[in-house]
Amino acid sequence: TYITGFGPWGVAPGKLKSPQGMATESLDDGGARVYVADTRNGRIATYRFGPTAGTVTNESDLGRFGHAPGQFWLPADVAVVDGTVLVADAYNNRVQAYREGEWTVFGEAGYGDEDDRFLLPTSLAVVDGRVFVLDIVNRALRAFDLATDGSDVSLEFVDAYSAFGGEVDDGEFWYPYNVAGFSPENGESSLVVTDGTLNVAH
What we know:
The protein has no helices and 19 strands. A hairpin with a 4-residue loop joins strand 14 (130-135) and strand 15. The protein is mainly β. The chain has strands at residues 19-26, 32-38, 43-49, 56-58, 64-65, 71-72, 77-81, 84-89, 94-99, 102-106, 108-109, 117-118, 121-127, 130-135, 140-149, 152-162, 176-182, 190-195, 200-201.
C-alpha cells in the first residue's frame, strides 16, 4: 500500500536533487528517521517518519558542499549504526562519520586496495559492526572495524577484496557501484555487490 512521498526536486530544506543511497534508524516512539544522500545538493537530508502512517517531517539536513569535515562533494551513500551516521563522500574520495554533533574524516585519494585510499567510494554497508566500503576506480571492497567512544569514531582497516576484469564467474569487477549486506541468525554474514557494466550482482 502506498503511504506517502517526500522531496521533490529543489535546493530548499526538505527538497532533493539526484538522491542516491539512504538508510533508516528506528526511534523509541515507534517512528523512524530516514537519511538520504542528497547528492547534487551536497548534503545528507534527514526526515522523521511519525508512528502514524503518512506523517513525514524534514529535520535539519547534515552538511553542505565543500571539502572540510562535515562538507561533501556529491555524497553517494549513507548508513547508520548505533547512533553513528556514515557517508560515502564520493568526489572527496573519503568516508565521513557523524556522531554526537561531531564529524570525523577517514581516507584520502589514492590508488590501491590497501588501507584507506579511495577513488570514488560510492557505497557502504554495515554488517555485524564491520563497515564495508565499495570503491569504483580501484575496483575494491574494503572492510573496516568500527569503534566509538563518546563523539569519537574510528575505522580500522581489516582487509580488502579487489579483482578487475570481465570474468563474472571469477568474481571480477568492472564498474562496482552498490554494496549491501545481511547477517542471518544461523549463518555467515554475506555481501552483495552490483556491477553496472557487467550487469551482474556478485
